[in-house]
């Protein structure tokens, strides 16, 4: 019995440091979280389903793709508004570039920003239930930029739970 207990103790003690590592790896450092909202870039978002592409005219000259997690996709498909808690929307953006092989084709150039909206109606009650994050090279931009998000989304997309993008047909 004592031998068994000792063995168990050894196993547990061996695992503890690894558990710490796993927990640490899954919780992004505070420096990677957006100011005001504490939003981080969600893991695996590049594999998420496409909601719609978009194009932005000069001076930004960008191609965009709005992606959503499963909660977002389910809500879109059911035509459900407001979006439920747990919804995450990610907008990827690239500079527009002429295809080197075909003059009339426009393709993604350098990546510019990754923008994130997270729905948590309690935590973000003051901003329509949405937390915002804008990232360049994986790092959040400054607080001043994060103060602009809610104003524009609130003013222009109120009737659609502050989300502009519609599911592409
Ligand atoms: C001046 C208006 C404006 C401001 C400010 C703004 N957005 Fe948006 N946002 C838009 C528009 C318009 C779209 C629709 C897609 C597009 O045109 O790129 C959009 C789309 C998005 C989307 C995809 C979901 C949706 O609503 O369509 C996310 C995520 C997003 N914005 C995050 C942010 C974040 C984070 C900030 C602040 C750092 C921000 N936005 C500031 C206008 C704005």
UniProtKB/TrEMBL annotation:
Residues 42-165 form the Cytochrome P460 domain. It comes from the Bacteria. Pfam families: Cytochrome_P460. This is Cytochrome C oxidase subunit III. It comes from Bradyrhizobium betae. The lineage of its organism: Bacteria, Pseudomonadati, Pseudomonadota, Alphaproteobacteria, Hyphomicrobiales.
């Amino acid at each position: 019995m004592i031998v068994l207990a000792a063995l168990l103790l050894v196993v547990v003690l061996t695992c503890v440091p690894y558990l710490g590592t796993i927990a640490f790896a899954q919780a992004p450092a505070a420096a990677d979280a957006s100011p005001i909202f504490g939003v981080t870039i969600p893991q695996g978002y590049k594999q998420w389903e496409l909601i719609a592409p978009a194009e932005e005219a000069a001076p930004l000259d960008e191609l965009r793709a709005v992606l959503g997690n499963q909660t977002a996709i389910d809500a879109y498909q059911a035509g459900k508004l407001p979006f439920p808690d747990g919804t995450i929307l990610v907008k990827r953006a690239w500079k527009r570039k002429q295809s080197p092989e075909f003059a009339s084709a426009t393709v993604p150039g350098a990546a510019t920003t990754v923008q994130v909206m997270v729905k948590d109606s309690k935590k973000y009650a003051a901003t329509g239930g949405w937390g915002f994050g804008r990232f360049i090279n994986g790092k959040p931009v400054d607080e001043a930029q994060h103060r602009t998000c809610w104003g524009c989304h609130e003013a222009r997309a109120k009737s659609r739970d502050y989300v502009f993008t519609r599911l592409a047909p």
